[in-house]
Write a structure and sequence with these properties.
Distance between the termini of chain A: 13 Å
Number of domains of chain C: 3
Radius of gyration of chain C: 29 Å
Structural class of chain A: mainly alpha
Order of helices and strands of chain C: HEEHEHEEHEEHHEHEEHHHHHHHEE
Number of strands of chain C: 12
Largest sheet of chain A: none
Shape of chain C: elongated
Shape of chain A: globular
Largest interface: A-C, 38 and 28 residues
Number of helices of chain A: 15
Structural class of chain C: alpha+beta
Largest sheet of chain C: 5 strands, antiparallel
CATH topology of chain A: Amino acid/polyamine transporter I
Helix content of chain C: 40-55%
Distance between the termini of chain C: 58 Å
Strand order of the largest sheet of chain C: 1-2-4-5-3
Number of helices of chain C: 14
Number of domains of chain A: 1
Helix content of chain A: 55-70%
Oligomer: heterotrimer
Order of helices and strands of chain A: HHHHHHHHHHHHHHH
Radius of gyration of chain A: 21 Å
Strand content of chain A: under 5%
CATH class of chain A: Mainly Alpha
Number of strands of chain A: 0
Chains: A mainly alpha, B alpha/beta, C alpha+beta
Amino acid sequence: MINTDKNSITYTQFVLIITGIQISVAVLSLPRKLAEAAGSDGWLALPLGFILNLVCSYIIVAVMRSCSGRTLIDTVSAMMGKWIGKAFALALAFYFLNLMYDGLVRAILIVKIWLMPNTQAYVLMLLLLFPAYKIALGGPRIIGRYAELVTVISCWLPFVYLFTLKYAHWLNLLPFFKEGFLPVLYAVKSTIYPTLGLAAVFILYPYLKNKEKAAPALFISNMITTTVYLFITIICFIYYSPHESKFYNDPIISILKTIEFRFIERIEIPFISFYLFVFSLVWIPSMYIVSYCMSLVFELDSHRTPLRVLCIVLIVGTFFYMPTFNQSDKIQHFLTWFGFSMEYVLPSILLIAITIYNRYRPRNAL
Amino acid sequence: MKQQSHPFASLIVIMGCLILSACGDQLSLENASTPLALGIDLDQDEKFHFYATAPVYSKNIKKKSQEITGEAESLRQSKALQDSQTAGSVQGRNYQVLLIGRHLLQYNDWFPMLDVIFRDARNTITDRIIVVDGSVKELLYLNPPDQPLLPIILRGMVDTKTTKSETYSTTAQELHRQFMDKGVTPYVAEVKVVNKQIQLKGSALLNERGKYMMSLNAQETILLNILQKQADPGFSLSYLIPDKPQTGPFATNMLSFTGGKVKTSIKTAYANQKFKFDIHIKTTVGLSEHIFPIDITKDSPKLQKQISSLMQEQIEGIIEKLKKHKIDPIGLGVYARAYQYEHFKQVEDEWGEAISRSEINVKVDLTIGAMGPVK
Amino acid sequence: MNVEPQEHKSGDADPIRIELTDNIQHVHRLFCDTTDFIIRTFTIKQTGEAAALIYIDGLTDRPAINNDILYPLQIQSDAGKPGDELVMTVGHVDKQSDFHHIETAVLHGSSVLFIHGRTYAYVLGTGGWPQRAIEDPQMEASLKGAHQGFVETSGLNIAMIRRYIPNRELKMKRLVVGERGQTNVTILYLADVMNNELLLDMEKRIQQVDVDVILNTGELSELIEDNPFSLFPQFVLTERPDSAASQLLQGRCVVVVDRSPSVLVAPVSFFSYFQSIDDYSTRWSIATFLRLLRMFAFITAAFLPAFYIAVVSYHFEIIPMKLLLTLGESRGQVPFPPFVEAIIMEITLEMLREAGVRLPAPVGQTVGIVGGIVLGQAVVQAGLISNVMVIVVAFTAISSFILPNYDMVAAVRLIRFMLMILATLFGFVGIIVGLMTMIAHLLTLKSLGMPYGIPLAPVKFADWRDTIVRVPLWLMDKRPRSTSPKQETRQNTSMPKEEQP
C-alpha cells in the first residue's frame, strides 16, 4: 500500500499530467501522419480518435473504481496471485519505458537536427535527465506541480501559431471527405500514438484527491489534447499545400521557421529549446511510473534506487547506442500497437475479469 | 534539513563531464562568415555558379562586404570552395535574399538545386526569392558606394513594394509551397540593373517546373494581386482615359487612383469538359490624380464605367497571356480543387493545359469614393 | 528590556547565602577580571540592612540606578524593620535566589540588589545599553511607507510591531538561543490566524539550534532553513515594522532576534521577494505594473547575459539583419570569446557593486564614475569589450537593482553565472536545461514546510491577486492560501460605489 496523503494530486494536476503525456513529442509529427493517411481530410479523424479515447478512458476509470482505493497492481495480485501482479507491473514498466525512451530520443533527435548537430547524444541525455531526475524523485505531487507550471508558462505557445494565419489558404481544407470516408477511418490509426498515456491513470488514480471526479478529469484532458491537435493540424493544413504537409517530418517546427518578427528572426530556435518543457511532460511522469513499478516488482520501499539505476542506464546506454530517426519512427510504430493493446485492449479485459471476479466471490473479494 | 549530503559532489562530476564533452557546436559570430545574399546562375558555358555576399565585420575596412563566388556542382558540394574564400566558416543561417539569374530559369526543374536550404535545418527559409533580369554576377559586384549593402537594399525594396502590391516577397518557403501545390504556379519578384542602378521590375512568373515564362510590370502585378485576393488597400493604378484630349508633351488624359479594400469573388464551375471561372472584382477607390478637367459630382458614373472597363481590359489581357503560357499564378487550381474536386483530380498533373482551355470571365465594379481635397 | 531568567541548564543549583559578604565574595569570583563590573555596598535607610548593588557599567541606565534605586533606598525613606518590602521606583523587580540566574541577568543589563539576611536577591530592570535612534530603514527605503526601521533591541522592535497590531491575539513565544550568547529570540504570531503546525515547526527548529551565539538574524535563518544548499533565500528578512505587521496579518510568523535590526518572516514563497510595502500604498494599477516589472527584471537579471552568450556564440541566425551588422562590427574587434568577454564585464560589475557598498558615500560616487566612464567608455574604445556587451551588463545591473530584496538579488547573481556557463556550453538548450533545473529546485524547495513556488507551483489562482499582480485592496478579501491560515477571511469591504452623475 502506498501513502497517498502526502503525495495527493489535485484535479487540475491530474488532468495536466495526462494531457502532458499525450501531447509532448507526439504532436510534432501528427499533421504529417494524418496527411499521409488521408491527405487534407486527416484532421477529420481527430474527433473520431477523441471518441475512441473517451470510451477507453471510461473503461480505465471503471477498472480503477472497482479497485477501491488500492493500486491496480495490488488488486491484480490479490485477484490472480502475486506473480501475475508482478508481471503486470513489469508490463506497465516496460510500456512506460518505451514511452519515455521514445520521448527522450525524439527530443534529442529534434535538438540535434535543429540546434546542436555536433553535440553528442549522451551529453544531451545527461542534460535532460538532470532536472528530470530531481522532479521524478519528488513523486506524483511534484510531477503534478511541474505539469501545472509548464502549462502556465507555455500557454502562450499556440498563439504564436496564429501568426501563420496571414498566409492561410482555407480552401486547402475543402472539400471534406474528398476521397470518401475510408481514408479518414484509416487515419484514426494515426491518432492512437499521439493519445497514448491514459495508462498512467492506473498508477496515478490512487493519488487523486477526489476520486469521483476522475471520469470528468479524463474527459477534460482528452478534450484539451484533441483541441490542441485540431488547432495545430488545421494550422498546418491551411498553411502548407496538400502535398506539402507530407513533406516535412515535423511540420509543427517547420512552420515556425516561416514566422518573422521585427526583433527576432528565426523564432524556431528559441522555440525548440522552449519546447523541451513540453516534451519533458512525457518522460518525467514515465520515469516515475517505470521506477515505481520496478520498486513494486523488487519490493523496495521507495522508487529512488530504480530511478537512479534508470538514469545511469539511460546515459551509459546512449553513450553506446543512439537510435536514428528511422529507428525512432519504428519505435513509434511499435508503440502504436503496444499502446493500443495496453490502453485499449488490456483495460477491457481487466474490466471483464474484475467484474466476473467480483460477481463470483462477493464475500471476500478485494 | 540534513538531507542531500552529496548534491555538490555529483554536480561537480556532472559539470566536469559536460565541460569536457561540450562545445561541439560553438561557432561565435565573428568566426562565422554569414552571407546575407545567395545567388545562383549559369555562365556562358551553361555551368552552374554560386554567388554570395557576406558583410565584413570591421571598422577599419572601407568596403563593407565580401563577395564569394565559384563554379560548383551543387550548393552544399561547394561548401569547401565557399569556406576557402573567407576567414570564417560560411553559414547559410542569415540569408536575406536569394537571387536567381534569368539564364538559369530558362531550364526546367532547377528547383531541387535548392534542396540544401530546406534540408539543413539551420538554414533560413524566409529569404526572399528574386529573379535577376541579367546576370547575377553583375548585380552582386555592383557595390554602389552611396548605398547600403546590396542585401539590405534588395530586401527593403521587395518588402516595402509588396505592401503596395507592386511585387511579391516570395520566400523560399512560399516558393516551395507554390511548387508543391498543383493548383498554382510560382510567382516571384524580379529586378534588373539599369545604368548601375538596381531597379525593381515587378514580378516574374514561372511554370510549374520552374521555367521562366513571362514578366509583369508593377501595375500588372497589382492586378494579379487583386485576382489573388492579396491586394492590400493602398495600391495605386493609373490609366489613360481614351476620350480626353492630350495636349503637348504632357499626358493630360491620365487618371490615377488609390485602391481601397478590394472584394474579389471567384465562382468555379465545370461544363463542357472545361473549367469555368467567374471573377468579380468590387472595389471603392479614391482619386489621386486626374490631369484633365472633369466634374466628378456629375460625371462620376460615366468615369466609373470607363475606369472599370479599362481595368477589366487590362486584366483580361493578363489572363490571356497566362493562358497562352499555360500558367496559373492566380491559384485558380486551388478553387477548382476545393469546389470541383472530381474534375480537378483528373487534370491536376497537367493543370497548365487545363487552365489554357478553361473559360475565365472577369467583371470589374469600381466606385469612386473620394476625390481628394480639391475639386 | 527585562530578562526572564532562563531555566537551569545544569542541575546544580547555586543558591544565595544568608551572609552578604559570602555573596559578595561569590560574585567577585564569578566576575573576576571584569573591570566594568561594579559593586556598590551601602546600608538601606528604611530597614537598616546592609546591601550590595551589582551591575555592569554601560549596560545599565545610570540615572535609573542613581535616582530610582540608590536615592530612595539611602536617603528618602521612612523607617521600617528588616525584612520589609523595599521602596524602589523601578518598574520591573524580580526576586531570584540562584546565582545562575543572577549572573545571566547582570550580563543582560539588569542590576541586582543583595541584602544581608535575605536568601533572595532583587533583579532590577535597569537595562540601558548603548542604543541607536530609530531611523529610516536603509536597505528597504520606501517612498510612502513609514520611516521607522527596526533597531538592535528586540523589545523596541516588538513594540514597533505592536503599534501596528494592537490586538490581544498578537501572541509571542520567547526562546533563548546560543550557549554563550543567550540571545533572546521571540516568535510573534497572530494566534487566531497563524497555522499551529507551522508555528510548532518553527519553534522546534529554533529550539534545535545549538550554537555559541547568534549575532544576526541572517545566522539564525541559515541555521533553521529547509534546504541550506539552495541558492534561494527561504525566509524574508525585513527591517521594516510595517512589512512585518503586514506579513503577520497574512498569517505568517515573525521572528525577532535581539541585537539584530532585521526580523525573519516565515513561511514565504518565491514571490514574496517581489513585494514591497509601497505596493499597498500606491494605486493598484501602478503596483501591478511594478510587480510585473520586477518579475521581468528578475528574468533579465538572471538570463540576459546568458542569452547574449548563447546568441552570439551559437544562434546568431535569430538576430535581425540590421542588428547583426552592428553586433558583428562591435564583436569583430573584440579579442575574447563571448564568454570571457561577458565574465570580465560581469565580474567587474560585481566588484564595482561590492566596492560601492563598503565605501563611504562620497568615495562611493567616485567608484560609480570610474565604473561608468572608464569601463563603459574606454573599454569599448580600446576594443576590449563590444559595446553591446556593455549595454547588456548595464541592463542586467539595473534589473537587479529593481528587485526589492537583497537576498534574492544575491541569489540572482549566482544563478546568472551558472546560466552563463551553461549557455557557453550548450547555447539555448543549456539555458533551458538551467531553467528546468531551477524550476525543479523551486518545486521541491520548501519554506517552513510550505511549498516555495506557491502560487505558481502549485497553481493557486486566488493567491495571484497579491503576488504576481496586485488587485485593488477590496478584492483581497482572503488571506493567502500559501500560509494555510486558520482564519481565511481578511475583510469584507465591497467595491466603492461609483456615484451616478
